Amino acid sequence: MWLKGLRGPILDDKNAKRLFGVVKDLEYGLTYARDMVKHNLSEEIENLIINKDLNGIGTVCELREMMETEIEYSLKIGKKVKKIKTQSDLLALVYSPKAEIRKAAYRELLVKQKKNLHKFFAAYSAIVKDWGYEAKLRKYESAIEVRNIGNDIPNEAVDELLKVCQINRDIFHKFFKWKAGELEKNKLERFDIYAPLDKIDKKIEKEKAINLVLTSFDKFTPKFGLYARQIIESQHIDWMPKKDKRGGAFCATIAPQIKPYILLNFTDKTRDVSTLAHELGHGIHSMYAQNHYSSAQ
């Protein structure tokens, strides 16, 4: 019937379960998609939303990133002024063992953001309104339920997690008090949150970081090291900060036959070693799943 453009009878739950189970690799994805039907809209509206996301709110998100990557910074410490071209290089300084450097980095970041506050707010407001409107249109109970269901996590699980964190917030208070003591301060300030306890500003160059991570993976299981090396040797990692490059880090799975791609902003800090290991971990996960269909990977 579908060849003639006609709709056939609706698939009942019993037959859906039977048919979805034929290809085990796709069973979970098909079952999940069927469960999501209650939030689907008409075909015409779904097409409108897809185009709205691509050409509307998606562009707003891109513009917000462009605004951020265009900002340059001037870090003033004493009488010296240092020009910094990327936010990644600036944020690396909030991990400095020197309080005056951390403070200067935070202040410069906030000063530049304040100057562009109306632009950032316009983008943020548009994104929030779009998210809330679509959540309402699709009959979600709340804005956060969209994310919960997208991650296949019950609302109750997230609510319980937040509740337990609230009840046990004194654990964080105790930690911050302890850290203030280690930094020889009466009270922890905002720019002390990421302060290292080591007084020496350690630098770890890229090659050393790679060796540290690969050695660790090899000890865990040789296959971890093998997959990590394949990603690195494929030159699928964008390593260094540069002008107009977005901040942060992520790993992108493209297809089973293609090695994952990784974006980093490596600044020779110890934290960058952990970030490299973290993102390679995502890539290794993808490569372990490369024998699956792309929709199930």
From TrEMBL:
Q: Where is the Peptidase M3A/M3B catalytic domain?
A: 93-295
Q: Where are the transmembrane segments?
A: none
Give the required cofactors.
Zn(2+)
The record's remark on the cofactor is: Binds 1 zinc ion.
Arranged from A to Z, the UniProt key words for this protein are: Hydrolase, Metal-binding, Metalloprotease, Protease, Zinc
Superkingdom, taxonomy of origin: Bacteria
A Gene Ontology biological process term: proteolysis
GO MF terms here are: metal ion binding; metalloendopeptidase activity
| Family affiliation | Belongs to the peptidase M3 family.
Supply the name of the protein.
Oligoendopeptidase F
